[in-house]
Here is the input.
Amino acid sequence: MQERISPLTPDGSLPNLPYRYGCPDPAGLPTAEFASRPLVSLVAPAYNESAIIQDNLKTLWDYMQSLESEYDWEMVVVNDGSKDDTGWLAEAFARTRSNVRVLHHPVNKGLGQALRTGFSGCNGDYIVVVDLDLSYAPEHIRQLLKQIQKTRAGVVAASPYMRGGSVSNVPWLRKTLSVWANRFLSIAAKRSLSTLTGMVRVYDAEFLRMLNLRSSGMEINPEIIHKALLLGAPVKEIPAHLHWHSQTAKPTKKRRRSNMKLVHHTWDIFFSGFLLRPVMFFILPSLMFLAMSLYANAWVLIHCWTNYQKLAQVTPFPDATEAVANAFTQAPHTFFIGGITLVLGIQLFSLGILSVQNKSYFEEIFHLGTAIYKNTQGRK
Here is the structure.
């Protein structure tokens, strides 16, 4: 984020500044109090949320109003092709609120595209992504903003799995899968991060614009972490409480359904892990196969030597190939296992070396593209 200029001109007067630097006073000039406040963009993706959207948007609105002494703010709701009244209800909410905008997808395009649309529609210095079901209480917003201002990180995530975080009212299976998915991604990223799949985060807006995001689904969250780590940007976490509320806003409303597709999401997690650290998908299996090959081929040598000794008792200096043939007849599976695992081990190890090389090329290209983007923006 660029360094903020002083609100005062050299002669001590207040200049005419854009709205994002403060609201004008009655004389038409912004006050120093307003001029120092950063602009926060709240992004809320929504898909078939008609049961809860108006109540929860009101909750977020009331909370952000409580922060107006510290931040200017705007809210961007992205209706991701909802089939119910989500879009209409969001528009009704925004109609009387000038700093709330609703963006619409004609069809459902996935979380990643919804976030990318929201990011492109933001004007803030900081971008906060929230979950409309409020499984993370609005109070996390202030904690996230304080942490990113304190650490000057590129990304700060709300983490229920780090020390001090907690999870409640989440189904056991989903909680277990989420915990292990994040552990897997943390190992792949070689970082101490505990939550890489979570959506509730705050971003430095200028940094986020450099990332050139491509994901259209839930994998956008690990993608952002991956690209942030490639650029060496600080990625921080705060302890958070993940709490699933009742899935209905009122008893008369329909029960909301989870739109998480387990198989597809599992594949996204593995693919994200592959992007973070492809070498472990080749080198580790190759070492396992090479170890199996070593064990099997050791038994091949033992069988061959045993048969050679038996032949030597009958014929001096027997033919070694005859000993091998006898050993193969006695234990053909040992030869097959030893040969196949050796070939697989060598091939996977070779692919691991190539993956390291390709990842290095990708990092170079990504750094180059980011540098070009920064230089281009700097000339505008």
